[in-house]
Amino acid sequence: MDYIWLFMIGIIATTLGTLAGGGGLVSLPAMLLLGMPVHSAIGANKISNTFSSLSSFIMIYRRKGVSLKEGLKIIPISLAGGVTGGLIASMLAEEILMKIAIFLLIFAFIMSFVSKAPFTGNDHFYLNKQSAPSLFGIGIYDGAFGPGQGTLMLYLFSYLKISYYKAVGLVRVATFSSCFGAAISYIATGQIIWGLTLALLLGSLTGAQIGVRLAGMIKVSYVKVLLRLVTASLIIQMVVDMFF
């Protein structure tokens, strides 16, 4: 029965994560409620995100929503940020990381109201003095803590005047990069419960395909509302976790 639940959790979490980030809002609490040890749950999430994110990017690339050249620019920066974040996490208390996450999400939430035209541009992605440090910083955050990484990246690409569909593809390749190293470390340390992880992975691959198809149809005005709902949910969840 747990395998079926994890398959369904993978579908729901990855569909949401593909569209607006915040898939961890669904997957991690649900896995913990099923009795999975916390490190095994995080490891399962990293493995499923690695493969589902890559499949999403490939699908968007085949539909000419994003170029391979743009995707390859993301990988080294996100990977370096993820590794750096992992090192920083060993030196900082979880409470500090939680406060940083809440601050970043509140800032993004406020900026979503200031920005009046999200995802209306159709610019190519370039590495410059704005995009490179921002990507690296979000990669550090993802490696150190994680929740809301995809949501923050969508806000960044909106600011850079990149279309929503292309932004989804770029977020997914960044997620692949940052999760890949983490997945290897969890496998190497023997934290993975393979049967449950594979059930989540199959659901995540299915959710990735659903999410990409919905992303190609969703109206930009709805994206803004969805991003705000996910951001507000992340902030509430983190505040509750920190104080209760």
Automatic annotation (TrEMBL):
InterPro entries: TM_pro_TauE-like, TSUP
Keyword Transport: yes
One cellular-component annotation, GO: plasma membrane
Annotated TM spans: 6-34, 74-93, 100-118, 138-157, 169-187, 193-215, 222-240
Keywords: Cell membrane, Membrane, Transmembrane, Transmembrane helix, Transport
Keyword Hydrolase found: no
Membrane topology value: Multi-pass membrane protein
Top-level lineage group: Bacteria
Primary localization: membrane
Annotated localization: Cell membrane
PANTHER family: MEMBRANE TRANSPORTER PROTEIN YFCA-RELATED (PTHR30269:SF0), TRANSMEMBRANE PROTEIN YFCA (PTHR30269)
Family as reported in the entry's similarity comment: Belongs to the 4-toluene sulfonate uptake permease (TSUP) (TC 2.A.102) family.
Record protein name field: Probable membrane transporter protein
Organism: Halalkalibacillus sediminis
